[in-house]
User: Fold this.
Amino acid sequence: MNLVSIRLITDNVASLAGFYEHVTGGTAVHLNEHFAEVRTPSGTIAIGSTATVGLFGPGAARPADNHTAIIELLVDDVDAEYLKLQEWVTTFVNEPTTMPWGNRSLLFRDPDDNLINLFTPVTAAAIEKFATYAR
Assistant:
């Protein structure tokens, strides 16, 4: 089994795709007006319209209602990313903080209130743990 993507359901695919383009530096691939993907070397942030929810079953997902998941993106320098994001991210949860498990993390919210964690491993154990991921 291999995790391929995280799908976010939204009322505004174009806006959310643009946000994730800005965060990742990638380009969104718009398969149609109801679906886009922002691909990274290790996985994809898929963005689906509320119009697609019925395909999975009525009420299977609700836009802008995530209270359990954190989208985590490995970056080279979380402090540098924080400086870049300050110009356009409206909701930061914290400033870059070194966590007890060895990652320096920055949490903020996307336009649909989904929580995003940009992190950089800073301890030897954390650096070793994430050494296989392309950055």
Observations:
- The chain has a mean pLDDT of 95.
- The two ends are 23 Å apart (CA to CA).
- DSSP finds four helices and eight strands in the chain.
